[in-house]
Design brief:
380 residues; alpha+beta; Beta-lactamase; nine-stranded antiparallel β-sheet; two-stranded antiparallel ribbon
Length: 380
């Protein structure tokens, strides 16, 4: 391990030799795409982190809040919406790595209250990959709180056989995260903030933003430019609740690019999240992360992050056995709340990635286009 880390540090140092010109070139690339995007979409503030060979460049634009005019920095906290699902997936994979659960376990094994329900026949892996049988994108209004959530699951009836159809769902992966925390003997927020995040080396990522960090928490804005932040809901922490900075997300990308720098159970956990479990419309579903062959055409990446992929059921083809990370792939995840938009993408074989965070929810396609341009520039 020490030899690996030393070798990695030396190579990163050597690669810094031409960083001045690279920084200038990358500034031109990022500016040329971000500046018109912010104007077109009415985005008050945005931050980009560009990761290459273990080094990070930050490009910050606009304001974290209109009233204070505080500038966006790499330490500004943004809601990352469904990018949180990759953290939830990593927590569940970590629980498996230390022997607290198996992805093949039925959901009811980790929550006795689900005995006698459909979840006696639905695995943790199916929950984590949106294939339990048609759980919806969001909880119905009457079930969208902690006190009614369990009753909803107890009475829910699948529309499809478990494992047959992918329907992107907050309740599905949210329940996976809830059960993963149960297996660790901790509430989810504690398991995430006190256990997983420190192990990943993340010091500015929160489920609940600390009081002393409140001034760094960006204000989100809706399509009418009215201030808005994420509302409480059932399994909100598990499905879409994290707040973080571009600096911490860049560290997270580096951890995914170089898991050998982490403790052994986390190395196993990241390998589990990078594993491909089934294919659907050119995308391979990992645990939290979504995977594509690399290089990839822009249209294929746009299609994979389209509204139909998020809103409609799709028949899946399971990989048997599940497929470990191939040589050349791209991982990505979008995330949104009412007032924020996030996108993360990285390519392990090229040791590069990009993080884009904004305090307005804008179309996924626009995020993908900017990230694609940045990754393409790095790969030239």
């Amino acid at each position: 391990m020490k030899h690996t880390l030393k070798k990695y540090a030396i190579s990163a140092l050597l690669l810094g030799a031409g960083s001045c010109m690279a920084a200038t070139d990358m500034r031109q690339v990022v500016d040329s795409h971000v500046t018109p995007l912010m104007k077109q979409q009415g985005i008050p503030g945005l931050t980009v982190a560009v990761v290459r060979h273990g080094k990070v460049q930050y490009f910050n634009y606009g304001v974290a809040a209109k009233d204070t005019q505080a500038p966006v920095t790499e330490n500004t906290l943004f809601e990352i919406g469904s990018v949180s699902k990759t953290f939830t997936a990593t927590l569940g994979a970590y629980a498996q790595a230390i022997g607290k659960l198996k992805l093949s376990d039925m959901a009811s094994q980790h929550l006795p209250a689900l005995a006698g329900s459909a979840f006696e026949r639905i695995s943790l892996l199916q929950l984590a990959t949106y294939t339990p049988g048609g759980l919806p994108l969001q909880f119905p209004d009457e079930a969208d709180n902690a006190s009614t959530m369990l009753g909803y699951f107890q009475h829910w009836k699948p529309a499809y056989a478990p494992g047959e159809q992918r329907l992107y769902s907050n309740p599905s992966i949210g329940l996976f995260g809830y059960l993963a925390a149960q297996s660790l003997g901790q509430p989810f927020n504690v398991a995430m903030e006190k256990n997983l995040l420190p192990k990943l080396g993340l010091t500015n990522t929160y489920v609940s933003v600390r009081t002393d960090k409140a001034s760094q928490y960006a204000q989100g804005y809706d399509n009418q430019q009215k201030p808005v932040r994420v509302s409480p809901g059932a399994l909100d922490s598990e499905a879409y609740g994290l707040k973080t900075s571009s600096q911490d997300l860049a560290r997270y990308v580096i951890a995914n690019l170089h898991p050998q720098t982490l403790e052994q159970p986390l190395q196993q956990a990241i390998a589990t999240t990078h594993t491909g479990y089934y294919t659907v419309n050119g995308m391979t579903q990992g645990l939290g992360w979504e995977r594509y062959p690399y290089p990839i055409a822009l249209q294929a990446l746009l299609d994979g992050n389209s509204t139909p992929m998020a809103m409609q059921p799709h028949k899946v083809t399971w990989l048997k056995p599940a497929q470990a990370q191939p040589a050349n792939v791209l991982y990505n995840k979008t995330g949104s709340t009412g007032g924020f938009g996030a996108y993360v993408a990285y390519v392990p074989s090229k040791d590069m990635g990009v993080v884009i965070l904004a305090n307005k929810n804008y179309p996924n396609a626009e995020r993908v286009k900017v990230a694609y341009a940045i990754l393409s520039a790095m790969d030239n």
